[in-house]
Amino acid sequence: MTTAIDNALDKAAALLRPARSAIAFTGAGISVESGIPHFRGDGGLWTRFDPYKVAHIETFRKDPAQYWTYSLEHRRTNAEPNPAHRALVDLEQRGQLRAVVTQNTDGLHQKAGSGQVIELHGSSHGVVCLDCDAQFPRADIDRLNREHCPPSCPSCDGQFLKPTVVLFGEALPERALRQAQMLAMAADVVLIVGSSLQVYPAAGIPRLARQHGAELCIVNAEPTPFDDVATVVIHGKAGEILPEVVRRIAQES
Ligand code: NAD
Ligand code: ZN
């Protein structure tokens, strides 16, 4: 380990140890070590696929089969939380983290055991019918999908079954956004993990927190546009860095 990283780890621990209203803000990068690919940057899905073709609400409405075929081929259904997810559970249980605000839809924070999780982009574990609003577990629709793609609604036979994720061109769920904004305004520290911080309005959450006086600690594989205003920036793998930060917090308390 270089001295620079060692110092940054100490600084991150010192920032979080006395925190009273810290939140984590997570993105696709925290789930990469669980085998779920991220979007932007090195090795990201959007270097191979056009997001506007596979994840935009208008394209989805025109051709749901395209979305569902992509989803059947590329969605991981058996992913498990990794040490980064578990480190956030430890922080919450120690009283050093109030909530996790996530852009992820994979449900791995909940699976790891985080109690307060706010999903800004919905969940990929559910499916909603755009005609009759009925909701279904994703696994049931995936099964139908393998028999016939695109799947049709088991309740009304409608042709627009959409996962309960926020696609490009859709608004964020109002309640989740409001909760995240309240937490951001009250936060003393925001621990940002695995996000390129390029997707708005989600990236507005750490920005809002900063405007209200929060200090930012960024753990990401690559530089982000927020690095300049952060108190601590650590470039590396979340699954290696976060457990080490928690270890250092525990050691000195
Ligand atoms: P992003 O793909 O834009 O950025 C991910 C960042 O994580 C990149 O900067 C990358 O350098 C970094 N990264 C990669 N591996 C890492 C690791 N092991 N440790 C730390 N950092 C790592 O993702 P984003 O900022 O979340 O924003 C984009 C959107 O992606 C969101 O809309 C989200 O809904 C969606 N998304 C979610 C999932 C998921 O649920 N797991 C997966 C892909 C995309
Ligand atoms: Zn229906």
User: Judging by the overall fold, what is the CATH architecture of the largest domain?
Assistant: 3-Layer(aba) Sandwich
Strand line-up in the sheet with most strands: 3-2-1-7-8-9
Strand fraction: 15-25%
How many alpha or pi helices? 10
Query: Rg from C-alpha positions?
Result: 19 Å
Which runs of at least 5 residues are low in confidence (pLDDT < 50)? Answer: none
Q: The biggest beta sheet, please?
A: 6 strands, parallel
The percent of residues in helical segments reads 25-40%
Bound molecules: nicotinamide-adenine-dinucleotide, zinc ion
Give helix and strand order, one letter per element, not per position. Answer: HEHHHHEHEEEHEHEHEEH
Oligomer: single chain
Topology:
Blueprint: H1 3-16, E1 23-26, H2 51-54, H3 57-62, H4 64-74, H5 83-93, E2 99-102, H6 108-112, E3 117-119, E4 122-129, E5 135-137, H7 138-147, E6 161-165, H8 174-186, E7 189-193, H9 204-211, E8 215-220, E9 232-235, H10 238-252
Parallel strand pairs: 1-2, 1-7, 2-3, 7-8, 8-9
Antiparallel strand pairs: 4-5, 4-6
Helix pairs in contact: 1-10, 5-10, 8-9
This protein binds nicotinamide-adenine-dinucleotide and zinc ion (ZN).
Compact overview of the structure:
With 253 residues, the chain is α/β, with parallel strands linked by helices.
